[in-house]
Automatic annotation (TrEMBL):
The keyword Plastid does not apply. Pathway: Cofactor biosynthesis; thiamine diphosphate biosynthesis; 4-amino-2-methyl-5-diphosphomethylpyrimidine from 5-amino-1-(5-phospho-D-ribosyl)imidazole: step 3/3. One of its GO terms (biological process) is thiamine diphosphate biosynthetic process. GO terms for molecular function: ATP binding; hydroxymethylpyrimidine kinase activity; phosphomethylpyrimidine kinase activity. Residues 15-257 form the Pyridoxamine kinase/Phosphomethylpyrimidine kinase domain. InterPro entries: HMP/HMP-P_kinase_dom (IPR004399), PM/HMP-P_kinase-1 (IPR013749), Ribokinase-like (IPR029056). The lineage of its organism: Bacteria, Bacillati, Actinomycetota, Actinomycetes, Kitasatosporales. This is Hydroxymethylpyrimidine/phosphomethylpyrimidine kinase. Keywords: ATP-binding, Kinase, Nucleotide-binding, Thiamine biosynthesis, Transferase.
Amino acid sequence: MVQTPPRVLTVAGSDSGGGAGIQADLKTMLAHGVHGMSVIAAVTAQNSLGVQGYWELPAEAVRAQFRSVVDDIGVQAIKTGMLASPNLVAVVAELLGDVRAPVVVDPVASSKHGDTLLANDALETLRTRLLPVSTLVTPNLYEVELLTGHKVRERADMRGAAEAMLGFGPSWVLVKGGHLEGEAADLLFDGTEERWFTSPRYDNRHTHGTGCTLASAIASRLALGDTVPDAVAAAKEYVTGAIRAGFPLGEGIGPVDHAWRWRDGF
């Protein structure tokens, strides 16, 4: 008898270039053997050079997509990404409040190229509405500073950043230290125990989609039954391989390779 795989839902923006956003999420989910589903919250015109424009969808369209998937198909984990505006953040937070599946929030604030993807007036809604319903939030250092005012200059600062993020209500926080010098070190914290995840730093500029990929990999592993620490460990290993195999695309920054495990086996 054919077994239905675990189902994971991404609520995020579409990346027309295919390297990040909904497209990266679904590729990552496929690579982990889960069934990926999507609620598109925004559409971007985006390529290897940056984001040329974005258009958020109406709240009723986001709500309808979510209800259509969750009420019929069901979910074992949810990942959120680009939500853009206070209204969309509030709508998604409301929808997530009725779901028992673990929620991984990637608080996307800007693109790899520095293009703004989250309105300044959405920060407070994210803090007060979305983070309290999240199982795990995965900010990079720029997002930590935006949300908490806590600037991380070295690895020793990451514990304080994690504590500040936990103050908004998530069960766990993964502070990503990839922008610091040295090995790529991320801190997972639940208010009690520090868990560090490190990996070599590869000399590869083609890293578009890293944050989306990591959060989606974590959500996929949670749907497969991993604990949060085990899910983060497995996702870190996967995204490190994807970064190592990132390839050039267009005239700018190329994407990580979501199919690196398959290509390694060819």
